[in-house]
Amino acid sequence: MTTRDTAVKTLRWRNGRLEMIDQRFLPAMFEYVSYESAASVAKGIHSMVVRGAPAIGCAAAYGVALEALRQRGESKETFDRALNEAFEVLAASRPTAVNLFWALKRMRAAWEKIAAQPVGEIADALLAEAHEITAEDLRINMAMGGYGAALLNDGARVLTHCNAGALATAGHGTALGVIRSAVAAGKHISVIADETRPFLQGARLTAWEMVQENIPVTLITDNMAGFMMSRGEIDAVVVGTDRVAANGDVANKIGTYMVAVLAHRHGIPFYVACPLSTIDLNIADGSAIPIEERAAEEVLGFRDYQWAAKGVKVRNPSFDVTPAELVTGLITEKGVVLHPNRENIAALFR
Amino acid sequence: MTTRDTAVKTLRWRNGRLEMIDQRFLPAMFEYVSYESAASVAKGIHSMVVRGAPAIGCAAAYGVALEALRQRGESKETFDRALNEAFEVLAASRPTAVNLFWALKRMRAAWEKIAAQPVGEIADALLAEAHEITAEDLRINMAMGGYGAALLNDGARVLTHCNAGALATAGHGTALGVIRSAVAAGKHISVIADETRPFLQGARLTAWEMVQENIPVTLITDNMAGFMMSRGEIDAVVVGTDRVAANGDVANKIGTYMVAVLAHRHGIPFYVACPLSTIDLNIADGSAIPIEERAAEEVLGFRDYQWAAKGVKVRNPSFDVTPAELVTGLITEKGVVLHPNRENIAALFR
Questions:
Q1: Which residue of B204, B311, B317 is in closest CB contact with A308?
Q2: ipTM (interface pTM)
Q3: Domain boundaries, chain A
Q4: Which among B198, B265, B312 has CB closest to A261?
Q5: pTM of this prediction?
Q6: Mean pLDDT in runs of 10 for chain A (350 residues)?
Q7: DSSP A168
Q8: What is the CATH number of domain A3-141?
Q9: CATH number attached to the domain at A145-349
Q10: What residues of B are in contact with residue A312 (Cβ under 8 Å)?
């Protein structure tokens, strides 16, 4: 085991508040933003202060806990109404990542179990549950890392898309957790990071995480992955995911599908690091996964720098769906599911 | 025929100088830069003031003519030495686009035909040849446009990558020339433009050209093409090319290969607008085409805005190779070559 997983604390609990690294400005600025209400956390999720499916789940859990703490002096009726509103506003913050809904469901179950008790006790219990969801995420990432590391050969050059790192989780990371665990096991791994337009999570976050830990990392634009594969410079692909359907179709950051199609053409294994909380058995296949479309400005430039021609229309789907047939394996905390399908995914939950 | 082709003059001859639109700053700034020597034109090509294979060919031809005019007062010996140096510096400006070498070869042939004549006459003849290469490029683009337009159905949604427009040529464009001709023929065409990192030719140049002419254009990041195809929102792909090998393998802007692989998977026709000057019969297949690697800064950000994490390594191949098997057809000024191969390409030159 390594202590690397504690190097970056995407979310932390300090003085009765949630603090999150503002990932919109990394790596130019490293700064924690403080949150005291569910509505402000929802805004932080929507504006991508925090992003990454598991981290969004943790943030939402803390959002509920914050609201409960904020309302602990109120009557039961007021408390209940405010808490129900908190669940609603958090659920509306981003549509694609299922971890958000999974975490909210878990928080609601924790609430319902003790709904008759005084509001102060409920608030304390909800905070404890948010802490546990977060601690559990780290444990799960370490477990996935172990299983995934075994899939990578010494010397492997691993392409990843977006950031499924410590910054996307409670620590260690999902896809980057696999890489961290392989490195910790003594393997020489080098990372090829897609920059991941429009939000540039690869250039800003994945590259930053790897540089911090001296894991060799090479940045490319998203349209270079095919070239690198055609030259034999990629040995494996490992990505994260925001939602996996019951049949193994994988929703992940826009561009993942293109990488999967290319990996398939070149016979390169394509792995998805996927905690069980990301699997949505209520969704039969990828066509039913809601795909968030974000604001045009993100595509017209980056932050305040707008370079595109005035008057052009824009599409900005934030995710795409990779069909299960292109997935070599799902790396979960219960082990690796090769060639995922309805049956072997259902078996994970038995 | 339309007059659209004269709307944008990428290169123009004014007062004994070559003027070129500085495409590095479009569309924020529209500005012509003036050139008086071969060395300065070579620098303009290398720094991408002018880009696009056919436009580079025209610029190189003018570069030779400029140097000849500049040396017209010199002795034959000095003139010859300066002109030979001009050919060398221009040939070294960019390695991938074959039009550059094609234009230089043509200029050298024009020179050799009258090498015994007074230097003043040679200079005049070389300028006339540069004018003719440029005028010919426009005629060729109009011819390609006509053949290509017939391939697009009314209502077609056409994806293009990079900018193979008026800005990449002497006018009308190759890939965008096909779209312009289809629109001029009364078809309703809408364009989906890949932004084309790192230089953003799609976001800046293709979008700008289309907006100017009220041709509907939607901008996407390069990693969204697969999503659009999977949703049935792309009917055809048309791109330009920098060099086509004798077997039909196509070198074009980085990312083209990924689009071709995806189009193939989705059964979407993939066309390459390709003047004969872009076909290099001396290259057996795509593996022998030299691929330019450019400076890291281009990938670390855009212009002065560097957003990537400090310390990350970078790859920056400027082109990739699409194998002939993925090309539905080459659109040339002699007609469309479906499923290009060694035989039907050779037949174009008989």
A1: B204
A2: 0.96
A3: 3-141, 145-349
A4: B265
A5: 0.96
A6: 57 97 96 98 98 98 98 97 98 96 98 97 98 98 98 98 97 98 98 98 98 97 98 98 98 98 98 98 98 97 96 98 98 98 97
A7: G
A8: 1.20.120.420
A9: 3.40.50.10470
A10: 193, 203, 207, 210-211, 217-219
